[in-house]
Amino acid sequence: MELGGDQGNVPMPGSAKIQPFEFKVLEVCLEHTCKCMESETLALEKEAYPALDKLTSKVSTLNLEHVRQIKSRLVELTGRVQKVRDDIEQLVDDDTDMSEMYLTRKLAFQRVDESSVKLDSNKHASPDHEDEKEEEDSGDDIESSHASSAFVKPDVEELEMLLEAYFVQFDGTLNKLCHLRDYVDDTEDYINMMLDEKQNQLLQMGVMLTTATVVITAGIVVVSLFGMNIHIELTLDPETPEMARIKNRKFWETTWATVAGCAAIYILAIYAGKKSKYLQ
């Protein structure tokens, strides 16, 4: 029975490989970071898309300030995700850096080296010249073996699979943020087009009002000319009722002619502006 119990604690050749402690810590850190950034991305998306749609329907100072704050958070979050993603990509591309992350394996090799050094120190040195030569030869063999092992590609498949899995997750989060950034840029372009159109409409209205002011000023000049103390037929007192009727008719003819002339000048000015495409 005791033998059977001991066999249960011994890992069999077909059993799953135990993950090193440093990789468990790394996985926990990456998982926590990934979840935090993913949750921040989802919260930002839920807040950003309605705010952008609201801004396109109504451009106001409050909506613009809200979108500005969202854009600042988006830039900050994108930078963080990009930094983590680039660091993981840099590690995956460098096998030497990944091999340095195998702390448990490095510690085991270090203990083996220390034990071998202790064994060598316990041996009594022989005064014989041949023993010294053998020790020198063995030292040269050890150095050559270490030098040759430096050119062997380290086994980092386990760590590479772990990093690539989280690289895909961070890359997906970054794609969401980039899509949101593109949506913000498109909204900004649309808002700028709307503002440019409003500005053009205001400029056109200003041109039309200025033209109307010039035309009305011309009419006022005509009225001022007739209001001056000039001895003409219209300013003389009528001697008979017939002359009074004629003067009254001429007065209204002059008035309506002035109004019609001003209106005609205004219409011609607007027509010229539209024909030259300065006005729509």
UniProtKB/TrEMBL annotation:
<feature type="transmembrane region" description="Helical">
    <location>
        <begin position="202"/>
        <end position="231"/>
    </location>
</feature>
<feature type="coiled-coil region">
    <location>
        <begin position="67"/>
        <end position="94"/>
    </location>
</feature>
<protein>
    <recommendedName>
        <fullName>Magnesium transporter</fullName>
    </recommendedName>
</protein>
<dbReference type="Pfam" id="PF22099">
    <property type="entry name" value="MRS2-like"/>
</dbReference>
<keyword id="KW-0472">Membrane</keyword>
<keyword id="KW-0406">Ion transport</keyword>
<keyword id="KW-1133">Transmembrane helix</keyword>
<dbReference type="GO" id="GO:0015095">
    <property type="term" value="F:magnesium ion transmembrane transporter activity"/>
</dbReference>
<keyword id="KW-0812">Transmembrane</keyword>
<comment type="similarity">
    <text>Belongs to the CorA metal ion transporter (MIT) (TC 1.A.35.5) family.</text>
</comment>
<comment type="function">
    <text>Magnesium transporter that may mediate the influx of magnesium.</text>
</comment>
<keyword id="KW-0175">Coiled coil</keyword>
<feature type="compositionally biased region" description="Basic and acidic residues">
    <location>
        <begin position="118"/>
        <end position="130"/>
    </location>
</feature>
<feature type="compositionally biased region" description="Acidic residues">
    <location>
        <begin position="131"/>
        <end position="142"/>
    </location>
</feature>
<dbReference type="GO" id="GO:0016020">
    <property type="term" value="C:membrane"/>
</dbReference>
<feature type="region of interest" description="Disordered">
    <location>
        <begin position="118"/>
        <end position="147"/>
    </location>
</feature>
<feature type="transmembrane region" description="Helical">
    <location>
        <begin position="251"/>
        <end position="272"/>
    </location>
</feature>
<dbReference type="InterPro" id="IPR039204">
    <property type="entry name" value="MRS2-like"/>
</dbReference>
<keyword id="KW-0813">Transport</keyword>
<keyword id="KW-0460">Magnesium</keyword>
